[in-house]
Amino acid sequence: MGETLTRLISAMILVPLFIFSFYYSGWYYFQLLLFGLSVIYLGIVEFCSFSDKGDEGKPFVKIALFYGFLIFFVSYLQFIQVQTNNPIPEEWKIFLKYIPAEANLITPIIFILFVHAFVIQLITRPLEGAILSVSTTVIAAIYLGLTNAHFFKLLQQTNGIYYIWIVSGTVFITDGGAYFGGRFFGRHPAGLKISPKKTWEGYITGMITALVYTIGVTYSFEKITGVVQPFSYAELFLFTPIFSIISVIGDLAESAMKRDAKLKDSASVVPGHGGVLDLADALLIVMPCSYYYLCIKEILGYTI
Q1: Which of 209, 105, 220, 212 is nearest to 161 (CA)?
Q2: Which residue blocks in the chain are alpha helix, DSSP H?
Q3: Residue 42 sits in which domain range?
Q4: Which of 14, 25, 224, 264 could make an SS bond with 85 (beta carbons 3.0 to 4.6 A apart)?
């Protein structure tokens, strides 16, 4: 089976699961929690495997997993308190009052993670490799746990479903468009040492297809709901190219880490794509960036 067909089959399986995870609220988005925890688990294991430098330092995998899960789970508990599609029962609120939705609980969790990793390093390992061991442990939990937690931040917005379609679609369509654009039209290498096979034609095709996609999604939402969406068509001509470029940066960042580890793919759990990080690398960067873009819009007085 060719690589292109394998990629398409994987997408046909994963895309419906992904859509179901954020669309269905009947189980208080429990399926989204499971989906996210699965991504975090596989992603942290992959990251820690290619961050392992042996005697020079290696991450504490169990600590990274614990705090990655904790960050995501706390964010989930805060999210279900503010989402309005399926309000939680009153008896749940008795316990959730200790995890208020408006509280900033993630910052102290990250600080405790840092201290915990350093204490374990001092107790169980020699001082050599301490910086690499502690830093990669903290990065693993943040790179997978904190970035994925921003999915809840986007989804809890008034137009959350629309934003998920726009942001996720921009990432995946940019990647797919760049892949096929490079295969069919690629003539001029982009000159990147990290990914020498990438071409300018591929990147441009990815950006154009993403713009067509975001315009199509916005038009469809407006026709179906009869409500003007928060992204105007003019804004999409600004938003889409910028976030297509950010998605490319996310992809290249993960490629740089793989090259440092002398790996082609982060793993082989997703046929045709490689590992979870190979598939979600761009989204891990674009999700937080898009959320803070919306925050800046709101501060400036625009409707989000």
Answers
A1: 220
A2: 3-23, 30-51, 61-82, 90-96, 106-124, 130-141, 147-155, 160-185, 200-225, 233-260, 276-299
A3: 25-156
A4: 25
3-state secondary structure of 261: coil
Domain-terminating residue out of 122, 156, 190? 156
pLDDT at 188: 76
Instruction: From 248, 251, 238, 180, select the one nearest 209 (Cα to Cα).
Output: 180
Please name which of 250, 169, 162, 161 lies closest in space to residue 209, comparing C-alpha atoms.
169
Give the pLDDT confidence score for residue 134 in this predicted structure: 95
Determine the distance from the C-alpha atom of residue 264 to the mean position of all C-alpha atoms in its chain, rounded to a whole number: 20
Evaluate the CA torsion angle 30, 32, 36, 39 in order and state its sign: positive
27-46 per-position pLDDT tens digit: 899 999 999 999 999 999 99
DSSP character at residue 232: -
Q: How many Å apart are CA 191 and CA 188, to the nearest integer? A: 9
Classify burial at 152, counting beta carbons within 10 Å of its beta carbon; exposed 0-12, middle 13-18, buried 19 or more: buried
Q: Which parts of the chain have pLDDT scores under 70? A: 1-3, 186, 191, 264-268, 272-273
Provide the number of structural domains found in the chain.
2
Q: Which two tokens stand for residue 218?
A: 């916005």
Q: How far apart are CA 287 and CA 25, in angstroms?
A: 20
How far apart (Å, rounded) are the C-alpha atoms in residues 84 and 189?
Answer: 48
pLDDT score at 303: 85
φ, ψ for residue 109, nearest 5 deg? -65, -45
Residue 167 main-chain phi, psi, to 5 deg? -70, -50
134 and 47 co-located in one domain: yes
Q: Could you give phi then psi for residue 53, rounded to 5 degrees?
A: -110, 20
Tell me the whole-structure pTM to 2 decimals: 0.92
Domain boundary among 109, 128, 156: 156
Give me the helix-helix angle, 61-82 and 106-124, nearest 10°. Answer: 170
| Closest to 165 measured CA to CA, from 176, 151, 145 | 151
